[in-house]
């Protein structure tokens, strides 16, 4: 083997080791690394990630009449009824549910409900927006008991249909398959919302 080939082999091996170490480090930082999101849905200063779960399920929409002003003829639109998704941990095991409220319930008995405070368009135009949700209530002792904010990011799918809601389909439900990552934050003792 020539000196040049030996040098290339050593450099290639070193680069491969460096790249693998970086990938392993990135994979292990999912809960502690700050999430890069639009400023409008950023977690408050001092908030720490308490949990991250992947949701797989559907956004459930219902067709209904919308009256823009008194006396005006109704128009029809799909409106969100509720999410219906399973929360999964990093191994893909089911650890809870995401439903109406919006609410998140863990198998450990804890739950959190919230209200949307901000949203940002998803990078994928076919996906539902990314959100920042502030906690309105928690219950139980467990992973969700001290959650103060939730982010919905990395969304896929979940949008209401563009058509198909009219006077003849009022009350019809439509389930739009979706997935997303949810980051659950707790504020530290010294942090302010």
Tell me about this structure:
This protein has one helix at about 5-30, and strands at about 45-65, 75-90, 95-100, 105, 110-120, 130-140, 150-155, 175-185. With about 190 residues, it is mainly beta. It has 2 domains: about 1-30; about 45-185, no CATH class. It has an 8-stranded antiparallel barrel. The protein starts with a helix and ends in a 6-residue tail after the last strand. The model is unreliable at about 5-35 and about 190-193 (pLDDT under 50).
Q: Which short descriptors sum up this protein?
A:
disordered N terminus, 2 domains, about 190 residues, 8 strands, eight-stranded antiparallel β-barrel, mainly beta, disordered C terminus
In angstroms, what is the radius of gyration?
22 Å
What structural class do you assign from the helix and strand content? mainly beta
Unreliable spans are: 3-33, 189-193
Largest sheet: 8 strands, antiparallel, barrel
Annotation, overall tally of beta strands? 8
Terminal Cα span: 63 Å
Number of helical segments with 4 or more residues: 1
Strand arrangement within the widest β-sheet reads: 1-2-3-4-5-6-7-8
Number of structural units classed as domains: 2
In which range does the helix fraction lie? Answer: 10-25%
Rounded mean pLDDT score = 84
Q: Write down the secondary-structure element order.
A: HEEEEEEEE
Strand content: over 45%
Overall shape: it is: globular
How would you describe the oligomerization state of the chains in this entry? single chain
């Amino acid at each position: 083997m020539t000196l040049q080939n030996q040098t290339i082999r050593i450099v290639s091996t070193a680069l491969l080791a460096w790249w693998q170490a970086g990938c392993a480090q990135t994979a292990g930082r999912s809960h502690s690394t700050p999430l890069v999101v639009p400023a409008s849905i950023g977690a408050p200063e001092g908030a720490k990630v308490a949990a991250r779960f992947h949701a797989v399920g559907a956004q459930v929409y219902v067709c209904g009449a919308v009256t823009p002003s008194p006396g005006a003829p109704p128009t029809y639109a799909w409106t969100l009824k509720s999410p219906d998704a399973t929360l999964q941990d990093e191994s893909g095991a089911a650890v809870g549910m995401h439903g109406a409220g919006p609410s998140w319930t863990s198998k450990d008995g804890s739950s959190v409900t919230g209200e949307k405070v901000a949203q940002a368009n998803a990078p994928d135009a076919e996906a539902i927006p990314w959100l920042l949700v502030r906690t309105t209530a928690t219950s139980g002792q467990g992973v969700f008991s001290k959650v103060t904010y939730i982010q919905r990011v990395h969304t896929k799918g979940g949008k209401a249909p563009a058509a198909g809601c009219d006077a003849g389909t009022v009350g019809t439900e439509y389930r739009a398959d979706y997935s997303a990552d949810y980051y659950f934050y707790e504020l530290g003792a010294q942090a302010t919302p």
